[in-house]
Automatic annotation (TrEMBL), chain A:
Gene3D superfamilies: MetI-like. SUPFAM superfamilies: MetI-like. It holds the Pfam family BPD_transp_1. Keywords: Membrane, Transmembrane, Transmembrane helix, Transport. Residues 1-28 are annotated as: Disordered. The lineage of its organism: Bacteria, Bacillati, Actinomycetota, Actinomycetes, Kineosporiales. InterPro entries: MetI-like (IPR000515), MetI-like_sf (IPR035906), Sugar_ABC_transporter (IPR052730). PANTHER family: GLUCOSE IMPORT SYSTEM PERMEASE PROTEIN GLCT, TREHALOSE TRANSPORT SYSTEM PERMEASE PROTEIN SUGA. This is Carbohydrate ABC transporter permease. Belongs to the binding-protein-dependent transport system permease family. Its main location: membrane. It is found in: Cell membrane; Membrane. The chain crosses the membrane at residues 35-55, 116-139, 151-171, 241-262, 296-322. Residues 114-317 form the ABC transmembrane type-1 domain. It comes from Kineococcus mangrovi.
TrEMBL record, chain B:
This is Carbohydrate ABC transporter permease. It comes from Kineococcus mangrovi. Coiled coil: none annotated. The chain crosses the membrane at residues 33-53, 98-119, 128-150, 162-185, 206-231, 265-286. Gene3D superfamilies: MetI-like. It is a multi-pass membrane protein. SUPFAM superfamilies: MetI-like (SSF161098). Residues 94-286 form the ABC transmembrane type-1 domain. PANTHER family: INNER MEMBRANE ABC TRANSPORTER PERMEASE PROTEIN YCJP, MALTOSE TRANSPORT SYSTEM PERMEASE-RELATED. It comes from the Bacteria. Pfam families: BPD_transp_1. It is found in: Cell membrane. Keywords: Cell membrane, Membrane, Transmembrane, Transmembrane helix, Transport.
Length: 337, 301
């Protein structure tokens, strides 16, 4: 495609003689100014809506809420709190040393919430990846009625998460269809493993098809010739899958896994509406919202911790697991044309 | 692809036996498996949604009937969903969601088109960092915005206003529009813009007269994705909104029944159906576009 190469070489490759270095430089500068003008509004908006809140949250997390000081009984106007807000969460220190938060308080729920958030992420994303890959392999085959398949795969994606949560809440009701079909009398929104399973099932239902679409896009850019060659050499279907499909689809797969992982780490709507946090299903995001009611500054510390966890996981994915987010766009964009 | 095929050939050679014959004999089985897979995937996507529709038509007394089709069919649940008797404002919430979704999409698209044009078309220093910032913004956990925005909006008296819900939504939608549009713009036939310039158009004219019409399908697709994302938002709306500006997601989650603690399942399923059906129709009509938009942007759902 000629347009792709035109974009890659940019402004001065077309029409302008690249002989005069001075002229070339000035054009480059002009382009930069135009770019700044065009991108400016986006950056400005993101700064207002994201940068400002981050800076506020981080600075707030090191100060204390205005209120009565329990040790003196005097009203205090906030002030520097050091890492007290972080000690509250990480060490469950409610003012009397490590693990002094009584059971049932929000402070004591931090590690449970972290654990369950990671549990959801690991189990749901694994299920979604495996199912998404299987779905994508089926969808990649040539057959009649692909349009119907694509549309039905988009249905779970199109339903708002809040509605999805209500739908599964109904399916998992005590008299609901899940118990009828399974012949069980499980309290899906009660205690133990059941509410966790309910959330994971609902999340997997909603997003495995989305995963399949991203993986399918990766499958479609694989050159058919590679498979033909392998077939000639006698590689069976399994061998072709393991030694051709998996390595070549890996970049698309990694990006899909990264996006899903970050989405699941910040999950809020689904568990909030489906179980309301029953049976230790409160995620970190839910804990932050619960804390907002009883103290902004501790909530800020917790949201900063959540942000750092998400950031760290993204960093690990991009740095060590080879999820190449910026370059991945190239083959995908080609497919979109 | 030369290197890729040679590696494949090499790895293939290690495992030659009577593989070719096996592959050919298996074909009918593979076709059958494909169709079984297709049916299962369709059921996966459609069954729970179908169950929502079936339930929405059941008389309340038969909420938990397990027949696969509606028994005691009624439209009462749809009337209940819109009724304001129990303090539910579903009709109003629908309008609110439309307003919030439309405003968010409009800002996201207009601002996003400029940025995406620059990212796809211009060479400039720091392009990589701009992409990184926008991508980083899309990965940002929404919950980190709750506390600061709640305080800010309390201070300036914005709680329970449309702008309090629209502005944070922009932070979710903008990275998505910039990313998706950049992917579309990279594919555009920019030679046409060059020739428009040759014919005497200013850069602005060339963009508006030549490129924008060509970009319309991509922009439209991106608008669908942006609107869907805004329509879905729950977390910030539930914290920063109030009755007056409550969107449908929050309204559905907080639906109350005739008596306290009574779950109005059938009414909620009716409300869910109303909220979802327009999106499903859109998906059916534009499925090819939506898939290309989703995979081009590759950003969150």
């Amino acid at each position: 495609m000629s347009s792709t190469s035109g974009v890659a070489t940019g402004e001065y490759a077309q029409g302008e003689p690249p002989l005069d270095p001075g002229r070339r430089k000035s054009l480059h500068d002009g382009s930069g100014r135009r770019a700044a003008l065009l991108i400016g509004p986006t950056i400005l908006l993101l700064a207002i809506v994201i940068l400002y809140p981050i800076v506020t949250a981080v600075s707030q997390s090191f100060t204390q809420d205005a209120g009565l000081d329990p040790s003196t009984g005097m009203f205090v106007e906030g002030g520097f709190a050091g890492i007290a807000n972080y000690r509250l969460w990480l060490l469950q220190d409610c003012g009397g040393g490590a693990f002094s938060c009584p059971p049932g308080t929000l402070g004591s729920q931090f590690w449970t919430a972290t654990g369950v958030t990671f549990l959801f992420t690991v189990v749901a994303v694994t299920l979604e990846t495996v199912l998404g890959l299987i779905f994508a392999l089926v969808m990649h085959r040539k057959f009649k009625g692909r349009a119907i398949l694509r549309a039905s795969v988009l249905v779970p994606w199109a339903i708002p998460t809040a509605v999805t949560a209500k739908l599964w809440y109904f399916i998992f009701a005590y008299d609901g269809i899940a118990n009828r079909v399974l012949g069980t009398e499980i309290l899906w929104t009660g205690d133990g493993w059941a509410p966790k399973a309910a959330i994971i099932i609902a999340d997997t239902w909603k997003t495995a098809p989305f995963m399949a679409l991203l993986i399918l896009a990766g499958l479609q850019v694989i050159d058919e010739g590679v498979y033909e060659a392998a077939k000639m050499d006698g590689a069976g279907a399994w061998k072709r899958f393991v030694f051709i499909t998996l390595p070549l689809v890996r970049p698309a797969l990694m990006v899909a896994v990264l996006f899903r992982t970050l989405d699941t780490l910040r999950m809020y709507d689904l568990p909030k509406i489906l179980t309301g946090g029953a049976g230790d299903t409160s995620t970190l995001s839910m804990l932050v919202v619960d804390q907002v009611r009883s103290g902004f500054h501790a909530a800020s510390a917790l949201s900063t911790i959540t942000f750092l966890i998400v950031f760290l996981v993204a960093f690990i994915f991009i740095k060590f697991l080879g999820a190449n987010v910026t370059e991945q766009r190239a083959p995908k964009a080609r497919k979109a044309a | 692809m030369a290197t890729a095929s040679s590696t494949a050939t090499r790895s293939g050679k290690n495992y030659t036996s009577s593989g070719v014959e096996i592959v050919q004999r298996r074909r009918p089985l593979a076709t059958t498996l494909t169709y079984v897979g297709v049916v299962l995937i369709c059921l996966w996507g459609l069954l729970p949604f179908y169950w929502m529709i079936v339930t929405s038509f059941r008389d309340v007394g038969y909420t938990f009937d397990s027949t696969p089709w509606p028994t005691h069919v009624t439209l009462d649940n749809y009337a209940t969903a819109f009724s304001t008797e129990r303090g539910n404002h579903f009709g109003r919430a629908l309008l609110n969601s439309l307003v919030i979704g439309a405003a968010t999409t409009a800002v996201g698209i207009v601002v996003g088109v400029f940025a995406a044009y620059a990212l796809a078309r211009l060479q400039f220093k720091g392009k990589f960092y701009v992409l990184g910032i926008i991508l980083g913004a899309s990965m940002f956990p929404g919950v980190a915005l709750v506390t600061p925005l709640f305080q800010l909006f309390t201070d300036i008296g914005w709680l329970n206003t449309y702008q309090a819900l629209i502005i944070p939504n922009i932070s979710f939608v903008l990275p998505l529009t910039v990313y998706t549009l950049t992917a579309f713009f990279t594919e555009m036939p920019w030679e046409l813009e060059e020739s428009a310039r040759m014919d005497g158009c200013t850069p602005g004219q060339a963009f508006v007269k030549v490129i924008l019409p060509l970009a319309a399908p991509g922009i439209f697709t991106t608008a669908i994705l942006a609107f869907t994302a805004a329509w879905n938002e729950f977390l910030l709306a539930s914290q920063l909104g109030g009755d007056r500006v409550q969107p449908v997601t929050v309204a559905i989650a907080s639906f109350t029944g005739a008596q306290p603690h009574q779950e109005p399942y059938t009414a909620v399923m009716a409300a869910g159906t109303i909220v979802t059906v327009p999106l499903i129709v859109m998906v059916l009509v534009f499925q090819r576009r939506i898939v290309s938009g989703l995979t081009a942007g590759g950003v969150k759902s």
